[in-house]
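Hello,

Following up on my earlier ticket. Below are the two sequence lines again, exactly as submitted.
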Amino acid sequence: MRKFVLCIACIALLAVPALAADTIKVGQLAAVTGDFAAYGTAEWEAVKIAVEEINKAGGVLGKQLELIMYDCRTRQEDTVNAARRLVEQDRVTAVIGPNGSGLCIAAAPIFNRGRVPNIGTLPTNPQVTVDESGRVRPYNFRICFLDPYQGAIMAQFSAQDLKAKKAALLYDVSSDYSQGQREFFIRNFERFGGKIVADEGFRGEDVDFRSQLTNMKNSGADVFIYPFMGKSLPLAVKQARELGIATPIVGGDGYGDFMWEIAGDALGDTYWVSHVDRYDPTLAGFFESYQAHTGTECKEFLNGVLAYDCVYWLKDAIERAGSDDPEKVRDALEKTSGLKLMHCVLTMDENHDPKDKDGVILRCDPKQQKALFLTKLRPE
Amino acid sequence: MNFTLSTLIQQIINGLSLGSVYALIAVGYSLVYSILLFSNFAHGGFLVVGGYACYFLLTQWGFNTAVSMAGALAASGLTAVLTERLAYKPIRERTSITLYLLIASMGVNIVIENLFVITVGGRIRALPQSTFPTGVFELGGGVTVSASDILSLVVAAIFLVLLQLFLTRTRWGLAIRAAACDLRTAGLMGVNVTFLIGLVFFVAGLLAAVGGIFLSVRYSLYPQLGSITTKAFIAAVIGGLGSLPGAVLGSLILGLAEMLTAGFVSSQMRDLVVYSLLVLILLVRPAGFFGRTASEKI
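Thanks for your patience. The regenerated structure is below:
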């Protein structure tokens, strides 16, 4: 009996690679649990939709795409383990996600050692694609713009559109994402003649910011800057308004529609840098199929749109490479130029970052409980 | 009111409000510790059960606030009793080493957290805005206090007073106090120990649910919400594990220390300063403020 079972197991093992050869394996790392769960779930659904669409239309190079998703749990150690599995055991062609900079940076050595390209959906820290010594990480790519860019947009918007002179910052001391945006905001805001009057920190898992907000209130700032993400955002907005602070709040691309549930009307007079306009007609088709697939609205629209476009970018690269060999796909990703995707026209620069993307400013409207398009900006 | 004084008052209000939430959770910890002499880390799980029960009763089944809260209390209480029966009782009957209970409780906490991740998903939710008062009161000089702060302080106080009355004025309260003195002797004197332990867990579960509901109202609801109980546990240790007044005092001290350090020293260095201070307190008073003995602590 034991021998029989062993035999079956051997046959099964042999059969797996034979089956796998008919598909192109695409890995995905998404934070389906943990602090970024809302963002990660949207990315997972969006990637599934794109893969299904591509497979229905005949696949890539005549092969079907096979999606292998692991939950990275919004934790660096889980991301590293999952990345290792994708590279070493599943032998995927490329990996899409995760969305956070800290998570991407943690997994970067695995992808570069294993020579598998990784496309970050929303990691905006410079070090995702360029290491500390300034060398480009050969296997890391991203579809979004960067924190210096975001920090500059936040500073320019605060100084020019909101006419702010004094800014108070609240940032997450345990996050690369937050630290990066803060640094570039300060640099640019001072360039516009503004002054930083308060600079307060908190730690990622904190839920109470009132003591920091009290100090920011007393600093006499005419704008509050929130360069962080996750549930801290709506909580910090709500608590500020509860402390009687009516100052406008400007944040990075952490905005998600889930914030209305927590902060509600407190979101009035808040402004968020974004990569896309939720109500852009070219995106409507995607949101409809998301609704049809999942039965829910794509509240974390940014993650949905960018993750979806990552799959089409990868498809284009595999086609140009003429192969699902990770090395050749990497070369093709690097040479991406003028690729028309759903949300942008994509061209890679020498650092594996997108060139010349517009930043969008969204304004929260409590009447409609939505973040509406306000203006488009490119840093001066 | 001058500028710095109003800031100080605001930060004290912030600290007391945070401390009152810690207190509700810390008391539950201490209650279980006082009887079974182990730190029940599954307490965070009970809190999450309470939060979600309230959320679903309100939003899915459309019950009113009072019914939903009562349902949440019952759900948490029963979860706590069930946990004791399924996970702790078999261990208790086989060994007297409380370390195993402690480890089992960590396991239960992870199980509960993941049950919620799988069944309802990891996304962050909030209890409907209209169910609890959300107003803000201006106290003059720019000092504000929110309705949810006052409410959580009042409810925490009511529950703590009720608990104190239960412990001092009822026969079962007397039995619990006797058991806290010495569980085995209480058993020999005719107290039904199995029922008593179940009762203690039920009460701890109720308190966890109240904490869970208030955390969900003030912050938000997600499967890892229970992790805030780490802070409450620390508060219970400072106050002296097993002592209920100690748990309340420790919680208020921790809440105030966090807020005042962030407000007047440095928000970046807050945890470093606050927790170094706590280590110092424990060096001077190893059993906390109201602790009984230091040797039995885990």
